[in-house]
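Course exercise 7: structure representation. Students receive a sequence record and must write out the corresponding structure in token form. The form below is the worked example handed out in class, using ATP-dependent Clp protease proteolytic subunit (365 residues). Read each field label carefully; the graders check that inputs and outputs are placed in the correct fields and that the protein name is recorded exactly as given.

STUDENT ID: A-19
EXERCISE PROTEIN: ATP-dependent Clp protease proteolytic subunit
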Amino acid sequence: MPNNKKAFMVTKEQNKGQIRIYSDIGDTYWWEYGSDEFRRELEALGDVSEIDVYINSDGGEVSAATAIYSQLRAHKAKITTYVDGIAASAASLIFMAGDKRIMREASILMIHNPGLSAYGTSKQLRAAADFLDKLKEAVLTAYNRADITEDEISKLMDEETWMTAADALERGFATEVDTFSPKLDLEIDNNVLMVKDTKIDVSKNKQFNTFYMKNAKMFKTKNMKENEENMTQEELKSRNPEMYLKIKEEGAIEERQRIKEIEEAGIPGTEVIMKKFKYEEPKTAEMFSKEVLKMVKAGEISIEPQEGKKQKNDMENLKDAQMDAKKSGVQNIPGSTGKSELTPEEKAKMRAERIAAKINKNRGY
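STUDENT ANSWER:
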């Protein structure tokens, strides 16, 4: 792949050099940027006392990255590395070369074990596995500059760990966090993570999904909710078991609350429909309440007096209504006689309103 000059730039101002790595990293021809090109550009900087390296890369070949790491560590200049957006996989090794290692406030660091695609005889595959073990030892040499133990680092690599700037600072991978630069826009669109010019497919990355769930506020998300809604339960369970369990737990809590609200809205005579709405044909408590009101209006059930409490009869309700009318001043309205007689329909409506008041009280309205 031809080198993209926008992705890799070297500049010099007085006694300070600047290197920008906004590309994949690798020594084979299809990679944008390799260790030999880096060596030539580093030599071209000449005698400088400081070098700033700005990184926004999702990684590449670990052998090329370790070579770049070694070149920076061997240089006499003071090295400061920055994560402008993301330093994932092999790119995180280059970040570790800095005497000062600075992450932008919303940037991301990711470390994991070295890997390769291999085929051949069992002997050849065992040799490849041994090579990966040796490669991990070399990678650990760079990561050991962090403030945690080698065993802890090895575990983070085994688990493929994604870190915010705060996470990296806490563990010592970063030496400081830049909170003064403009905040980065981290965007996820159709399961593609976009950090500045770098795009990473995270659709099958379980570890990133866990990281995303924990730090969702960092991201601008497009077309992710729709994709999740279109997934089957089995697909979601397989792809993101943590999210599946969380959704399942939330669903169980909502279901218990739905049943509780229906039971609180129930009155004697609604047992059959309550069972139907709870289990046989699940409906919301609001729908149950409306059905109860219909039954009251139709005279199928009546309000039972509360235990220890005398229920008012219709005459007492009429007196209450007349008293309310008197207090409200309705008698002073022109055309009003001040008299009130309840029709059977009005009485049924009054009963229905009492039912609604009881239901709403139970629901906290």
